[in-house]
Amino acid sequence: MKVAIIGGGLAGLTAAAYLSKETDVQGVLFERSPQLGGRAFTYEKAGFTLNYGAHAIYGLDRHILTNMENELQLTFSSKQVDKRKVMYEKGEQLTPAPLDFVNLMKTDILTVRQKVRFVGEITAMIANIHQIKHYNTLGDYLSESGADEDVKELWEHLVCSNFFITPEDARLVPGAVISDYYHNLFLSQRPVNYVLGSWAVITNQLRDKIALTERWSLAMQEGVDGIRYEQGKYLLKTKAREESFDRVIFAMPVQQVVKLLRETPWEPFLEPYEHNTATEVMVYDIGLSRVVARPFSYISDMNHKMFISDVSATDYTLIPEGGQLLQGIAYLSDEPIDGNEDRKAYLNERTTQMEDLFDRHYPGWRDAIAVKRVSKKAMVQSVKNIAGNRLLPNRIESVPFYFCGDGCEGKGELAERAFSSGRHAASLLTADLRKHKQPVLSYRE
Ligand SMILES: Cc1cc2nc3c(=O)[nH]c(=O)nc-3n(C[C@H](O)[C@H](O)[C@H](O)COP(=O)(O)OP(=O)(O)OC[C@H]3O[C@@H](n4cnc5c(N)ncnc54)[C@H](O)[C@@H]3O)c2cc1C
């Protein structure tokens, strides 16, 4: 059985690593860029290890990576972000983010009465009896909840940071999704961790697992630009070749899946997923030759919807001796902005606001820059998990392919959904192959 996987990001690498254990499966993983990892790729510059995205893991002890660690024998270390140094800036006020009971007691964001109410909400979430699961969206729940504005704002802000979406979009997250997510996260002993050494520590191991078996090959810089069906096989076309496969897994952002399947017999089935919206942000990475200040591990500017992580305060492996690595992220509005000039002005304004945030908390940063990278438009999650959007299922009726990636159905959000859907796609494919042979071990919990 010959399998093609299109996309060498976290999802595609995960699916390939699981399938490489199957002795009756051979395959090719196609990646159009020169490196693996997709949006989780890492590169080295002037002694700094820079991540295209961040490598924070929410709820590590309950995360899909824990299953993968055992099933694929991955090894990695992680470190908890110092919760006492996770701060919110609101108006002129700086206060601890209420991530746990200690911070909740310390924060000025809520009054004592509001804190009592919030503790009640957390407790109900942990016990899985929170009413929110019966509401269409977080916004619907909040508007009927009778909660004070500050409690509402706190909910929006929490969801915004865990789901990586704007506070406005946070209101659109389905109640059942919030209930599941926070039931898991509030029970976790390891709420926010970094994989020490970046996502590359994981992607390199996945790559090695695939490369170790001679049944699989990695086709780098070979973007797939066409697919057709002929005599029981799927023919994939790249600039270098056309090759036939028995099964195909799409492991790329949903927008790109839709594009690749345009003008094929399968196009109509993708139509419901065409208008999904993605989270887009501006990323402002700076590597500094010295530690200019270390007041927090994370500061969220609630006024301007942006935040800075002192990545090196948690992950000290990413910097040259004495250096500091800061990552600023600003949410971008999805309101259409007319004209190139207006768009440019908007991005310049966001850049200035970000630099002001650096100035406020990291004075001297401009003179200590060793490395700087600004990405004015980075896709964080291919499909925002909000009402109106539809995550792509791992299988679609009448479509012979398998789908995975952070825009697909799966456990968790962001990278966790990329990993979990990749694992599940591999499991579904294996189950298909074994259907008539023997009982199947499913990877899905
Ligand atoms: C700034 C930023 C910060 C982030 N922070 C976090 C965080 O802290 N925690 C977290 O969990 N997640 C975070 N994420 C999200 C995380 O990086 C993504 O969810 C994850 O990397 C998505 O993986 P994927 O495999 O689904 O997709 P991708 O990474 O997009 O992989 C798809 C791959 O397919 C390839 N491809 C596309 N089309 C073709 C084609 N036609 N032929 C061949 N190859 C093709 C692409 O080149 C790419 O390599 C962040 C993302 C960003 C941008």
TrEMBL record:
Protein name: Dehydrogenase
InterPro entries named among the record's database cross-references: Amino_oxidase, FAD/NAD-bd_sf, Zeta_carotene_desat/Oxidored
Any coiled-coil regions, as ranges: none
UniProt GO molecular function: oxidoreductase activity
